[in-house]
Model the fold of this input.
Amino acid sequence: MDLLIQNCMLDGVRNSIGITGNRITTISPDLKPVAADVIDASGKAVIPGLLNGHTHAAMTLFRGYGDDMALHDWLNNKIWPIEAKITEDDVYWGTKLACLEMIKSGTTFFNDMYWQWDGVARAVDEMGLRASLAGVIIDLFDPVKAKEQMTQNAFLFDRSKSYSDRIHFCLGPHAIYTVSAESLRWVKDFADANDLLIHTHLSESEKEVRDCLDQHGMRPVDYLESIGFLGPKLSIAHAIWLDDAEIAKLKEHGVGVLTNPCANMKLATGRFPYSRVRAGGVRIGIGTDGPGSNNNLDMFEDMKFLALAEKVNTGDPTAAPAQEVFDCATTNTAEIFNIDAGRIDVGALADIVLIDLQQVVFSPGHNLVSDLVYAANGSVVDTVICDGKVLMQDRVVDGEDEIIARGREVAQDLMSR
Done:
């Protein structure tokens, strides 16, 4: 046993957890302190590390930049022009800043889609988190650009094998309005040949659906099905403007959906039909989206916003109950990304968060899951363990002051260009 967590509250019972390597190996109230390292978790509850199903981590550099704008105006006139100037070093520090923020708020895995893949991977490797990192494809329907990005992503896939096994390479075609059908077919074939996951944005705005109907005579999910793109390796972000027939097709093909409640509200892109999608049997996870459109990476906030938004949207206070929403941020997202995490069980990956029960939001403490979803935020997180390694204890992360300072410097320098 390499690490022992003693005296923690697990499912309302005082317990201890033994970790060997990167796995939970024992759960028992009677474990003795024979491990190399021991954490006394008295006054703390243990939960699985949260999983952020969709983000653009290095966009921490754009936090507060271009707020209060419509989605396509924000993308075309603020984000894409500045991203054209971004370097690998910028992305490296922006991602380190994001990893720090996620550790501080109890996230141990995130699914990322961003430029300068090596900069993202280096930051994640150093910070100790687990991540699915997408090689971005945006060909803008240019065959030359498409060929270049196919070659680049094949190269990145090979290169990804040199990084920690906490880092999983996936393919990230941006959206149907930025990627050609030819590139999407290549993505599907390459993913199938190499057993890779695929992640994309879909049905995020009403405009996207209208344009798809105008150009292809069908809705976005139908269009992807028509080119053979749907399948169990695919996950889609947003999925706001779905009709019932599209939901049935997502279920049929085993596609996972990642909703982004705070970003959707901020950009006013629409109401995610949680109850209809869940009733349709589709797997639902939660993501924060990027810090440029949320504006933070706190999964506790997105859990609360998902629950409250669905109650308002349906007029039903029983919709999206706390346990369902908590599962979206843990077990559901873990299943979508084929990760043996999101649960505290013997044999599971040791991705664990200790919650400080002395925080005022946990008093009187009738229901921990309810308190986590409706009352808490990331500041209740005391300790974070990922892959069996302690990344934060007593809310202290090694090197955090330098990361915050460098994040500011890099952002200011990028804007000056």
Remarks:
- The CA atoms of residues 247 and 279 lie 9 Å apart.
- The chain has two domains: 3-48+346-400, 50-336.
- The chain is about 40% helix and 20% strand.
- The mean pLDDT is 97.
